[in-house]
Amino acid sequence: MLDINTQLNFENIISKKGFLDLTVDPTLDLFYEIEKFKKEKNAIILAHYYQDADIQDIADFVGDSLALAQKAQSTTADMIVFAGVHFMAETAKILNPHKKVLLPDLNAGCSLSDSAPPLLFKAFKDKHPNHIVITYINCSAGMKALSDIICTSSNAQAIVESLPADQQIIFAPDKNLGAWINKQTGRNMVLWNGACMVHEMFSYEKLTKLKVRHPNAKVLAHPECEAPILSLADYIGSTSGILKFATKSIAQEFIVVTEAGILHQMQKDNPTKTFIPSPPNNTCACNDCPYMKLNTLEKLYLCIKYELPEIIMDENLRIAAKKPIDKMLEISAKLNL
Ligand code: 13P
Ligand code: SF4
């Protein structure tokens, strides 16, 4: 435990910077140190596929948003260190009010989550009475509290299809995922106008040219991409779906249209296959999520060592946000997802 003065000093740093800004001895073996703290504190590190390779390698579990929520629900660890973005760590806290849930950098937000402020969404929802609200997990606890069922890209279609065909639905916040589910299911869900800045960056023109240069490559895309990009895909699915497809496929070459972090596990699981990241529509590395990449191995080390920054939630908000998450986990368990 930290002494009170150090704790106050660290809380001050966190409230200003969102992460512990301390110098880390460059000679330290961070893998060894993190492993040591994991055992000492009975901590689990959960990481999303979009994290840096080092973070994925030190994690106890790497997964997509659904698998991470399921793991957070079932873990017996006392402490969860979440190597992902804020809404993911917040979901883990919602499911584990008595555990310490840590996020290496509190600034690790999400453009998609930011595109749905709860106050504006409440007004939108009020204009659509008799609609069930299905909300993508990439949203704040405030949005979850306004929702009936949460979904992820792994279970969105199944969740929509679990409702009667004539049930009116609002789908938020991702308009691209919503439009894709509408197309898959023949429904006409009302869509909130939100999107992910990373998945909207892919260039149709460059992807078309890449396909011509690699005629045998299968194109694997995430449903957060826009419809024209999805029209070029051989497979559309969540990060874990993309990974599974590449592993099962007899194809040897794949063009990957999602955040570049996934390439690490794809290559690890399939060392002889070739994975080509789809290019964004300019010259920057925009297929790296700037929020996901705020977490570093150094910040992860400081976070597990000092047990900061921690996710703290208002209890009433937590209870309200838990209901639609429980509903999602219940439906997913029934459907074996
Ligand atoms: P999944 O890993 O659940 O497919 O989500 C992708 C994503 O954008 C997470 O922020
Ligand atoms: Fe949010 Fe997009 Fe980053 Fe995922 S990739 S965390 S949806 S901004």
Strand order of the largest sheet: 2-1-3-4
- Principal-axes geometry comes out as globular
The second-level CATH architecture of the largest domain is 3-Layer(aba) Sandwich
What would the CATH topology of the largest domain be?
Rossmann fold
SSE blueprint:
Elements: H1 4-17, H2 30-41, E1 43-48, H3 53-58, E2 61-63, H4 65-74, E3 79-83, H5 86-95, E4 100-102, H6 111-114, H7 118-126, E5 132-136, H8 141-145, E6 149-151, H9 156-161, E7 169-172, H10 175-185, E8 190-191, H11 204-213, E9 218-221, H12 227-230, E10 235-236, H13 239-248, E11 253-257, H14 262-269, E12 274-277, H15 297-306, H16 315-334
Parallel strand pairs: 1-2, 1-3, 3-4, 5-6, 5-7, 7-8, 9-10, 9-11, 11-12
The structure holds 1,3-dihydroxyacetonephosphate (13P) and iron/sulfur cluster (SF4).
Provide a brief overview of the structure.
By secondary structure, this protein is an alpha/beta fold. It contains 16 helices and 12 strands.
Description:
With 337 residues, the chain is of the alpha/beta class. It has three domains: 4-109 and 292-312, 3-Layer(aba) Sandwich (Rossmann fold); 112-195 and 319-334, NadA-like (Rossmann fold), CATH 3.40.50; 204-277, Rossmann fold (3-Layer(aba) Sandwich). The chain has 16 helices and twelve strands. Helix 2 runs parallel beside helix 15 (297-306), helix 4 packs parallel to helix 5 (86-95) and helix 13 packs parallel to helix 14. The longest helix is centred in the last third of the chain and has 20 residues, at 315-334. It is globular and about 60 Å long. It binds 1,3-dihydroxyacetonephosphate and iron/sulfur cluster. 1,3-dihydroxyacetonephosphate (13P) binds at residues 49, 64-65, 138, 152-154, 196, 224, 238-239.
